[in-house]
Specification:
There is one protein chain. The protein is mainly alpha-helical and 277 residues long. It is built from 10 helices and 2 strands. The protein has a two-stranded antiparallel sheet. Strand 1 and strand 2 form a beta hairpin. Helix 2 packs across helix 7, helix 4 runs antiparallel to helix 6 and helix 7 packs antiparallel against helix 8. The longest helix is centred in the C-terminal third of the chain and has 32 residues. It is flat.
Length: 277
């Protein structure tokens, strides 16, 4: 099941997992801002190297997050396709030059500027995704809720987010169990069946899945109400930990990367680095 789960906390003994939830949230935000404000390929390659290094240090295996990677690749392909479909000269407009590599049809010319622009777009996704996966996979939901509270978010909101993250594996487990039960009753959901038939049969899983989810929500909400959740304005957090040396180093690295991204924007005079001049 571990290889088929998505958006799930994966406990490991690693430097990344040992960081506090507040540190991981702060680094995620700093790193995301650093990648968002620039289209300089040099900065993006630096951020990509840091992102892949963090992923390797976390000891999370590729097969465990395969679904998210495949989803990103499909989304990235569609994104680039529609960018080229609706505006094949966007790169020419941005960089101010036009080097045609070959002509396709009508107004669609493949230019070096357009390919370079789409490469930068793709790099931004490859930069951000590993850190986003790490933030979700390496952060205990309760610790994440505590980190949100530490930056001023209401504990009611933080606790709701934590419950939602904890609930995702439960939904996946229920879906798997119901799917196995339906297949035992002769409803085919495997690859041997046609795609349309598989989709139609998959609908039979939704009703018991929804009913089991509503039942679990009712139990949790009643338990929280009986324990007086939301009565006080503040609360303490069992998973909240004090900062250690690595936490300060991680936040410092995030600030340094963000400052580098800002500095390159000022040096270039824009968010784009133009190699065609």
């Amino acid at each position: 099941m571990a290889a088929n789960t998505v958006l799930n906390y994966l406990p490991r003994k690693s430097v990344v997992h040992e960081l506090t939830g507040t540190t991981k949230l702060a680094f995620f935000l700093l790193f995301t801002f650093a990648s968002m404000i620039t289209y300089d390929i040099r900065v993006l390659l630096l951020l990509l190297a840091v992102s892949l290094l963090c992923f390797k240090v976390s000891k999370i295996r590729i097969r465990e997050v395969r679904f998210m990677l495949v989803f990103m690749l499909v989304f990235l392909f569609l994104n680039n396709f529609f960018i080229f479909l609706f505006n094949p000269d966007q790169g020419t407009v941005i960089y101010g030059t036009r080097h045609v590599l070959f002509h396709l049809f009508w107004r669609y010319d493949v230019t070096a500027e357009q390919l370079y622009y789409m490469l930068n777009i793709s790099l931004k996704y490859f930069v951000a995704l590993p850190v986003a996966i790490l933030f979700i996979s390496a952060t205990n939901p309760s610790e994440f809720a505590a980190s949100l509270a530490s930056i001023g978010v209401s504990y009611r909101v933080g606790y709701s987010v934590a419950i939602a993250l904890r609930y995702i594996p439960d939904i996946q487990r229920d879906y798997h169990n119901i799917s196995q039960a339906q297949q035992a009753r002769g409803i085919e959901l495997g690859k041997k069946e046609k795609l349309f038939t598989r989709l139609k049969n998959a609908v039979t899983i939704l009703m018991p899945l929804i009913l089991s989810s509503l039942s679990r929500i009712d139990v949790i909400s009643n338990a929280m109400e009986l324990r007086g959740f939301g009565k006080n304005k503040k609360r303490t957090w069992y998973m909240q930990r004090p900062f250690a040396r690595n936490d300060f180093l991680a936040i410092g690295l995030g600030i340094l990367l963000l400052a580098t991204s800002f500095a390159m924007v000022l040096i270039n005079g824009s968010r784009f680095y133009n190699p065609f001049l």
